[in-house]
């Protein structure tokens, strides 16, 4: 796209189709050493072909998590503008950057469908939009992947996950989601969420999808919270 815009972070000029200047894009926190399954950032690289200790002890229901970066500044600020302030240009900018990350990971095998993590109707009415759905839309078009908005629904409204421990999050989301019918036509899907912290939300949905017969479930998100940002209390 021709023309110039204003960078969402520094207010300098930037390409109109990016919304972030080159300098600010370069400053986004990357996950240099990540677990190949849960996607969490690690201080040192794992031996080739191995996964982190947490995944060995309790394997996630999904097969892989792909994140744009770590949940450190400025990603939380950009995500908050998108999610809580309704600055859709921030979401579009992040989606374009995530798209480049996915292109390198999905060079040979694209998912059959993208499934946005659903909001409960009451939360959707309060916020006015589902940030995961808006993100999935931005990814589905250029990738040419179907967007399945009807398969998974949130049947139970739950308190916000923020501030809860890993165990509390898992209990909070138990039986919060439901699938509409057996999705036997999809064999490989990707769940789309904005932030993955303890994996409670995506794990709950991935477990349902696997039980319904879907062979491979991946998770796609803007940011993956590191070990230091996860409460593991009982």
Portion of residues within helices: 25-40%
Radius of gyration: 17 Å
- Tell me about the largest β-sheet: 4 strands, parallel
Q: What low-confidence regions span 5 or more consecutive residues with pLDDT below 50?
A: none
Strand content: 15-25%
Highest-level CATH class of the largest domain: Alpha Beta
Query: Which term fits the overall shape?
Result: globular
- What is the number of independent domains? 2
SSE ordering = EEHHEHHEHHEHEEHE
**End-to-end Cα distance:** 51 Å
Strand order, biggest sheet? Answer: 3-8-7-4
CATH architecture of the largest domain: 3-Layer(aba) Sandwich
Total strands: 8
Count of DSSP helices? Answer: 8
CATH topology of the largest domain, by name, is: Rossmann fold
Mean pLDDT: 88
Multimeric status of the protein: single chain
Brief write-up:
This protein is α/β, with parallel strands linked by helices and 234 residues long. 33% of the residues lie in helices and 18% in strands.
Jot down its keywords.
234 residues, 4-stranded parallel sheet, 2 domains, Rossmann fold
Write structural notes for this entry.
The chain has 234 residues and is α/β, with parallel strands linked by helices. The protein has two domains: 1-28; 31-229, Rossmann fold, CATH 3.40.50. The chain is built from eight helices and eight strands. Helix 3 (75-85) crosses helix 4 and helix 4 crosses helix 6 (131-143). The longest helix is centred in the middle third of the chain and has 18 residues, at 88-105. The mean pLDDT is 88.
């Amino acid at each position: 796209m021709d023309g110039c815009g204003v960078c969402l972070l520094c207010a300098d000029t930037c390409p109109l189709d990016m919304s972030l200047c080159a300098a600010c894009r370069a400053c986004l926190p990357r996950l240099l050493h990540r677990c190949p399954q849960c996607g969490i950032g690690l201080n040192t690289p794992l031996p080739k072909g191995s996964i982190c200790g947490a995944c060995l002890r309790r394997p996630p229901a999904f097969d892989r998590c792909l994140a744009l970066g770590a949940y450190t500044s400025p990603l939380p600020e950009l995500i908050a503008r998108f999610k809580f302030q309704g600055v859709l240009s921030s979401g579009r900018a992040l989606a374009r950057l995530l798209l480049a990350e996915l292109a390198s990971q999905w060079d040979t095998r694209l998912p059959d469908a993208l499934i946005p993590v659903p909001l409960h109707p009451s939360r959707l009415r309060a916020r006015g939009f589902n940030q995961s759905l808006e993100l999935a839309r931005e990814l589905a078009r250029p990738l040419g992947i179907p967007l399945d908005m009807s398969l998974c629904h949130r049947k139970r409204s739950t308190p916000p996950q923020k501030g809860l421990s890993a165990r509390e999050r898992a209990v909070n989301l138990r039986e919060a989601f439901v699938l509409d019918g057996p999705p036997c036509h999809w064999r490989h899907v990707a769940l789309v969420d904005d932030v993955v912290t303890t994996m409670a939300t995506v794990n709950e949905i991935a477990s349902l999808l696997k039980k319904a017969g879907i062979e491979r479930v991946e998770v796609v998100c803007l940011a993956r919270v590191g070990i230091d940002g996860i409460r593991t209390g009982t």
